[in-house]
């Protein structure tokens, strides 16, 4: 069966606990992702900031002051929570601290079950308590679109994926934070965003040069570059 290691995005955007809320919001927007792990100085994942966390923070800012009788019914804890949401400035203050993670060997079925059970859109992938990737709902859909997930993953396909990702990570032009790769029966499926035709062509060449690749299926989307990028 395909596992987290076969579909995960291995170049993960992360933030420190001290990252300011506007910085986190810009990261989500720039990389077109819906959440980002919060990693401490020791490399440990201590939380996740999602779009929902930021929207909740923004919504709290616009809340009107509660009436005196509603304040009595609400209680001090709720008032303190509202204040923290409204005045929070860092990732640590707005993040969800209970993080659901999976090992590299987790099957796609197990990951999908966890996402449904906990109502989440992404899970960090861990190896010996170290963050090595992230699997999103989008990654699961990409796998479903590209492969028969009920069949065991071939060792050759995993080797192709690992070699191609290693090659691309070494290239300054390959923006892997916005890409994902799925391989089945020697066919490389490319997903994500590209900034130019030159970048797209370079991805094709890199994939075609990996031993064992029989075909490249390009499903990457051209991202419009905005002024100032």
Which features characterize this protein?
four-stranded mixed β-sheet, alpha/beta, 10 helices, about 230 residues, single chain, globular, three-stranded mixed β-sheet
3D structure, described in words:
This protein is an alpha/beta fold and 229 residues long. Helix content is 42%, strand content 20%. The chain has ten helices and nine strands. The strands form three sheets. Strands 6, 7, 8 and 9 form a four-stranded mixed beta sheet that branches. A three-stranded mixed beta sheet has the order 3-4-5. A hairpin with a 2-residue loop joins strand 4 (122-127) and strand 5. It is globular.
> How large a portion of the residues is in β-strands, by DSSP E?
15-25%
Instruction: Please give the largest β-sheet.
Output: 4 strands, mixed
The overall pLDDT, averaged over residues, is 84
Radius of gyration using CA atoms only? 20 Å
Uncertain stretches: none
Number of helices: 10
- Overall geometry comes to globular
Q: How much helix is in the residues? A: 40-55%
**H-E string:** HHEEHHHHEHEEHHEEHEE
Give the termini separation: 40 Å
How many beta strands in the DSSP annotation? 9
